[in-house]
Specification:
The chain has six helices and five strands, in the order αββαββαβααα. With 192 residues, the chain is of the alpha+beta class.
């Protein structure tokens, strides 16, 4: 049994056992596209927020509201099942067992573009952290440091799974810049 067949079988089994109601459809090998409609209820809001928190950590990229593209892993399957567990939710997981090379490159380009955007967003956060340190508001910068560290940690796993050397090199550069930013914040805090 191929890895894709095994992953689909696992998702189908979880879906059936939990009666989650995930609609599984074919789209692309090794990646899945999850899109959902979750009711605005206390339960729906809680699960949606948990999904947002977990999505980047498992390598998901948001294509539009409620549409995420990610590597097909057991963690991704679990997220789909959790979303579908909300009463009134509609969840679709699209997958594919075979693609042509051109389509594979196109989908990888979408994914890589999102990773590049995350890196750009982190660099913008680092610029804002340094700006707060220099403008005498290091307490704001310190709050940003914690969230930025979480983004960097998530990005580290994503870059490792993707295996693109350019991303790994860029991440090293971001980590260096992050260390420099923290130093500026700490110095600003001491002299405040």
């Amino acid at each position: 049994m191929s890895k894709i067949d095994e992953m689909k079988s696992n998702l189908d089994a979880m879906n059936e056992v939990l009666q989650a109601g995930v609609n599984v459809q074919e789209i692309l090998e090794e990646y899945i596209l999850i899109h959902y409609d979750i009711p605005t209820t206390e339960e729906g809001d809680t699960i949606r927020n948990e999904f947002y928190s977990n999505a980047r950590a498992i390598g998901a990229v948001q294509l539009s509201e409620s549409v995420y593209f990610m590597p097909w892993t057991d963690e991704a399957n679990t997220q789909a099942i959790l979303l579908a567990g909300v009463e009134g939710a509609t969840v679709f997981v699209h997958y594919s067992k075979s693609i042509d090379e051109e389509q594979g490159r196109a989908m990888a380009a979408v994914y890589d573009g999102a990773i590049s955007k995350w890196m750009e967003d982190i660099r913008k956060r680092l610029d804002r952290i340094k700006k707060h340190a220099l403008e005498g508001t290091p307490h704001i910068a310190m709050r940003m440091v914690r969230v930025t560290q979480e983004h960097i940690n998530n990005l580290e796993g994503i870059c490792e799974r993707r295996g693109v050397e350019a991303f790994k090199d860029e991440l090293v550069s971001i980590k260096t810049e992050f260390s420099d930013a923290i130093t500026k914040v700490l110095i600003a805090e001491v002299y405040r």
